[in-house]
Structure prediction request, 215 residues.
Amino acid sequence: FASGNLEWKNSYNLTAQTDGILQNANFEVGDTVVKGNLVASIDNKTNAVNTETAEEQLAINNENLSLNSPQLQQLRQNITIAENKYQQDRLQAERYERLYKSQSVAKVEYENILLQARNSLSNLNALKAQQNQILQQAKSAVVSTKGQLKNSRVQQAYNQVRAPQNGKVIKKLKATGDFVRKGEVIAVVADDTQVLAVLHVDENSMGKVKLGQPV
Prediction:
């Protein structure tokens, strides 16, 4: 007689990756699991809400970057008005320059018209710079929100407990309805093709053990 136990090679812990109530854990010890298959699920509504929020925020940010953005539409209108104003002031300045050269207008009048043209150009450039800044901010917001959405989807995927490798369930530590925390072991799975029976043989019985003896 010798007592002993089974030792499974290549075993791993099936671990919860998020907090919540364990659902659909319908497997039992001895059941085979297949890599990638759904083994159980975890009810964590926060992950789903975060994903939905990130999707809505991304839609808003994409809208801000599109031609339909109210802010960009208003800016484009203002730029068009500023461009027309600058063209008028520039032509007026050129006209006054010719008049000044022919001494038909006073120098102060010419300088005032010239200053007006410069101010119009400065206003136009400021509006264009503002438009570029808003576009840059909108692009940055889209990139940031895309990252948040990807992270939220990864977190939401943690609600599904999937087997990372093929194997057989050798221990079941959590059942349907249990509250699990991130990092807690739900079950232990092992490679059922590599099992060792480890026997602890008493010293007095060692002499009875023969090579090829059935166990």
Observations:
- Helices lie at 45-65, 70-101, 107-157.
